[in-house]
Predict the structure.
Amino acid sequence: MTDILLGDLAILLEYDPVGRRYGGQSKMKEAIAEYQKLGQDKLDELDLTNNLAFALFYGGDAAGAINAAQSLNPPPAAMLAASEAVLHGSKAGLAEANKRSNSDSAFKETAHTAGEMLMNIRQYSLAADFIEAGASGDNAAQFVGLASMLRGAQHHEDLRFANTPADLVKRGLLLTMDPDLTEAKLEALTSRNGIAVMKNEDREEQKKSLEAGRQLNSQLARQDNSLDVTIDILLQAFDPKVEGNDATGYRVKVQIPGGSSTTFFVVKEEGQYKLLDTDDKPNSIALEMLDRIKAGDLQGAKVLLDWLHEDQHLEGGDDPLGGPVFPRFWIKGQAADARKMKLAAAAILVGTKPTVAQGLSMLEDALKDAASDREKTNIQLALAVGYATIDNFTKLLDLSSSLARQEPESSRAFWWNSWALTGLGRYDEAIALSNERLKLLDGDEDAQRRKMFVEFDRGDVIAARGSAQKLIDQGKENANLLNTSAWDALFTGKVVQADIDMSIKSTQMAKDNSSFLHTLACLYAEAGKPKEARDLLLRGMDDLNLDEPDDDYWYAFGRIAEQYGEREIAIADYRKLQKPKELLAIPDSSYRLAQIRLKALGADGVAAGN
């Protein structure tokens, strides 16, 4: 093997399976061995002068790193200081950094770099001293804060967890970042009702949940960050706020550093604390409520309802039917009442596919003997949510029509009504519905937007884009509207510069939203600009943390392949696309564009998702 190849092999061994240099799963011993075979003189010739010293440092041999670095010119000051700290403590390491710096600013830069190196090898106490010593400039306070967090950081794999609600949530947080998460691992921490919901989830949704940690690991690798370090710091900053007891269950509020606040719900089953749900889609909580009501534990169900209501409120605004449905059935602090509690639980269940059938059954029975007109309207709203969840357009049309008669100006009832008509293929009636609303509410934006969508779904792309242009001319343009119109241009068979300009404007307004960048990439590909398209697609995949293209991206790459004359590659890419499961997601989908291209290529057969 030539010296160049040996050098390349050594470098390759420094990368872990997800492409992170000096990662925890890198083969550092093997890399060091290859560098040592070459020797320092040959490393100098190959422009790999510092590689052996750094490999020794990240391979855990600080003494060897110092020995290898002594003869280098210039010597890597930060690495020498960090190595000295590993061997003899931060005081000696900082003295080394000071000795090798000719000014205060140079010292701070060296100390900061050494601190980052120590953090990356998970020497947190040492890293904290160096990062604090190197803090300067506008970001000084930020780095002092980081140093404070690092002082308490521990290796997550060494942590021991107690059987407490707080530690259970901590273990759950760890699982969400586990690259090797399995269904069995998840179920081990999950309550009976949580598992019941998981079993009914769509397989694709389950797959996304299980792959979240792997995707996070890949994303951090692309940013040259360590998953282990990230987890260690997050867990150190973990400060849960716990309330509740074994009888009622627990609410655990967690503020993720740099992220939003999340609420976890915990119950005790057979002596062990288990994760019930979060506040995102609390369908497992609704099942728990029903179990408690059935067992006569109304107070326990009431506690869960009150907790949920704190995070969901009735919305004000112009639409009397707008906002979340659940708060219409429950007011925090009201007396425990089994019937009202069941209705509140059903209103939650209809919002997600794993539980919608149970919620609909309960609400359909309750509608027959509604206690008041107000309750009847609320039940109808909840039923409409459920019918929309499962695309039952016939029943949704009946309910939304009734709601529209009660509240003619309601935006929500109108959208449901128009959506249901479209789903049933009754396009003329949907257009007429928009026109009637425009008579009722002059210039109504909802009516104009729905008209645009209906025209597109019925196949009249030109009319749909005309409706979009009317909204733009009326001064109602926004990033979403521009992106929609630009995307629709792909279905016309001819993309012009004005379409590209519109897409560019939408991406600028949306600050380079990845979905809008995808639209622009597809337009470039359609217009015969494959290089520009490819560059945007790769950027978008990075933003979305995609290890490989998804359906939208396979279509775009297929179009690029066509532009380069690679017919078979294009056909293979197009056939990877899955047919959307929701009927109304098909007309403007990448899948439909792929079918159009397959037909144009004379290869319109059975695609992967057909």
Summary: The chain has 31 helices and four strands. The longest strand covers residues 261-269. The mean pLDDT is 95. The beta strands are 241-245, 249-255, 261-269, 272-278.
